[in-house]
Amino acid sequence: MKKMSTIRTASEGSAGLAVFHSPRLRQTRHRSALSGILATLLLWQERAAQRRALRALDPHELADIGVTRAAALSEAEKPFWRP
Predict the structure, then answer these.
(1) Taking the model in full, what pTM does it have?
(2) Fewer Cβ neighbours under 10 Å: the N or C end of the chain?
(3) CA-based angle 14:32:7, to the nearest 5?
(4) How many other CB atoms are found less than 10 A from the CB of residue 7?
(5) Range with the lowest mean pLDDT among 2-11, 33-42, 51-60, 74-83?
(6) CA gap 52, 74 in Å, rounded
(7) Rounded Cα distance, 52 and 29, in Å
């Protein structure tokens, strides 16, 4: 059986791993995670607004865009987090 090697930390002299402990990199990762969360929330908000608008269209407006009332209601009933 092969013995697993341990990963050394930057404080143990491994210069290659020092990057993972960099405050700037941590800040960048946090910023990236926060921007991803914000983008998702904005997408959900837009999707909910579009579905409300779709539900409010009258039969003539639905015909103009080529959508049946049943299809519009089916889409409008989806929760905002589902594509």
Answers:
(1) 0.62
(2) N
(3) 20
(4) 9
(5) 2-11
(6) 12
(7) 35
